[in-house]
Write a structure and sequence with these properties.
Mean pLDDT: 82
Number of domains: 1
Strand order of the largest sheet: 2-3-4-1-5
Radius of gyration: 16 Å
Largest sheet: 5 strands, parallel
Number of helices: 8
Helix content: 40-55%
Shape: globular
CATH superfamily: P-loop containing nucleotide triphosphate hydrolases
Structural class: alpha/beta
Number of strands: 5
Oligomer: single chain
Order of helices and strands: HEHEHHHHEHEEH
Strand content: 5-15%
């Protein structure tokens, strides 16, 4: 079983590595497929390689956003966040008052941007954004796609956008690949 997981992790890395991927979670995606991909992502998270973006991911509602960014980090990473946060906040047009808000007071978009800033600063190897669970606006998704592309180009980070929506821009110039969850699982198991 361990060997199978290691092989699947390697295949997942190869499939996503240094790419901006659009993954469709279509109605025909099986629950077994979703669970298996979830297990692989959990393993990457344990290895501290993945950053999950999303409204219900990682943020404690009663803590300010800036404190949420520091949770679970070693001292050197906390110092890195604090030293690079002003520049990152400026890039994303975040004010210090937004960063001092409790997570429960943030909009979906603000939460995602703050989590994305953390992932960029910590140079995660995979940034995984499950739009199907976040209900971000179409305008927000369109505005964040160029940032995802820039991250992929400048940091050699894999960025994965999972969606069920048909209104997500599908221009081939933006993505390196787009797949369904079922196709992704077939490639991982190949």
């Amino acid at each position: 079983m361990q060997k199978k997981i290691e092989t699947q992790l390697h295949q997942l890395d190869r499939l996503l590595s240094h790419k901006l991927s659009l993954i469709y979670d279509v109605a025909s995606s099986s629950e077994a497929c979703k669970k298996e991909i979830g297990k692989l992502l959990d393993k990457h998270i344990q290895l501290n390689q993945v950053s999950l973006l999303g409204y219900n991911q990682i943020m404690l509602p009663y803590l300010p956003a800036i404190d949420n960014m520091l949770i679970g980090l070693q001292k050197k990473d906390r110092e890195l966040i604090l030293s690079e946060l002003p520049e990152m906040a400026k890039f994303f047009r975040l004010s210090m008052s937004q960063l001092k808000k409790d997570a429960s007071q943030l909009s979906v978009e603000e939460t995602i941007i703050i989590q994305l800033a953390r992932a960029i600063i910590l140079q995660k190897s995979i940034i995984f954004f499950d739009d199907a669970k976040n209900h971000a606006s179409e305008e927000f998704i369109a505005s964040i796609l160029p940032v995802f592309k820039m991250i992929r180009e400048n940091q050699n980070t894999a960025v994965v956008l999972v969606t069920t929506r048909g209104d997500v821009p599908k221009e081939p110039a933006i993505y390196d690949q787009y797949l369904t969850l079922n196709d992704m699982m077939k490639l991982i198991n190949a």
